[in-house]
Write the structure tokens for this entry.
Amino acid sequence: MSRPAADPASLAQARARDAADPLRGFRERFALPLDAHGAPLVYLCGHSLGLQPLGAKQLVLEELEAWAQRAVEGHEHGGRPWVPYHQNLAAGLSELTGADPSEVVAMNSLTVNLHLMMASFYRPQGKRTRVLIEAGAFSSDRHAVASQIAWHGLDPEVALIELAPAAGADLIEPAALDTAIARHADELALVLWPGVQFRTGQSFDLARIARAAHAAGAIAGFDLAHSVGNTPLALHEAAADFAVWCSYKYLNGGPGAIGGCFVHERHGRAQPRGAHRGGLPGARLAGWWGHEADTRFRMESEFRAAPGADAWAVSNPPILAAAPLVASLMIFAAAGMERLRAKSLALTGFMDELLRPLAPRVTVITPREGAARGCQLSLRIAGGVDAGRRVFEGLRAGGVVGDWRSPDIIRVAPVPLYNSFEDVARFAARLAQVLGEGV
Ligand SMILES: Cc1ncc(COP(=O)(O)O)c(C=O)c1O
């Protein structure tokens, strides 16, 4: 099946908007997946796995070449020596997260980073033992939190608070979150909240959540898997205590790419050199890559913490899993998050507009206001699981790639770096066609 045909009026409008888009050239910097006939698919799955920046292959090959030619000396020599390799990522990541470069570190994967952050920032004491998360949180986050609670000898059934939307609603009202935090103020140790909720696409005001958590005497930590590279972030200003993310979604770092962490500078600063135990934030699970760089290779038994978030690094980073991210961050730097966000609002707004006539068979559950969403829209398909799956499969057969979240949600994300208005028009037309076919 070739590219889905779009309704002529929407297609003309889409093409005019593409022609006027100052970021349209960035699409050419990515490998667009193709169908069996060699035509590009309508790829709307950047919320799951971002596309490959064309520059990634070159950067990975450079490291393979450095390894082949220099072997161990690649740690110190070559275009991008491996010992300080993660520093190639700090500036780009700090730009995207609204942090100082010393507040971010690229390392591990998201859930591992969440555990490392909780080792420092979830320090239950006395009555203050509870963790607030959203009901229906990403499974890995819930597993991480529940296992941390249990690891401290506490009962997750008691210590975990899961805030659900009001009855019949899909979204959590920000005021309801404020209220929940205030209600549990004397027993909350940690509020762990998503920047963008993975299932609904709802985006949250992190500064407001951090303020509420701090007023309650709790730590504010964020999972930014669906936010980084998608929505503007200002973690330093928001006074977040910590944040974690992965890089294979909107950051286009490739499958299993190196993840990242933010630790607010007040925690880095408060960290006495050499101190490695005690109360928050002095405790952390350490490794040699968190040691100050100048003296790391003396291999002394005393741990001297590197300044800033680097102190939380444990192992030397996976260079081959970091190189594609270097390529991607170069593209972000060229495009600029402000311009990307402006295009994102227009692109997702256009999709929302084209989907409205499909109600009630398709309902967009993601908030309508731009400030409360990123680029993803989550669509509820009426008629139950089987009907929803058939619609999803009809989309895929028609060259559209989104994903399915049981029992009735299709997620689609027009990504401003590589999706076009034409992609959106073709997707909407295919969806209308699939529904018209009575699936
Ligand atoms: C919201 C969220 N949290 C956690 C994860 C798990 O990430 P990882 O496998 O990198 O630990 C994902 C992965 O998609 C995610 O979307």
User: Anything to note?
Assistant: The longest helix spans residues 337-355.
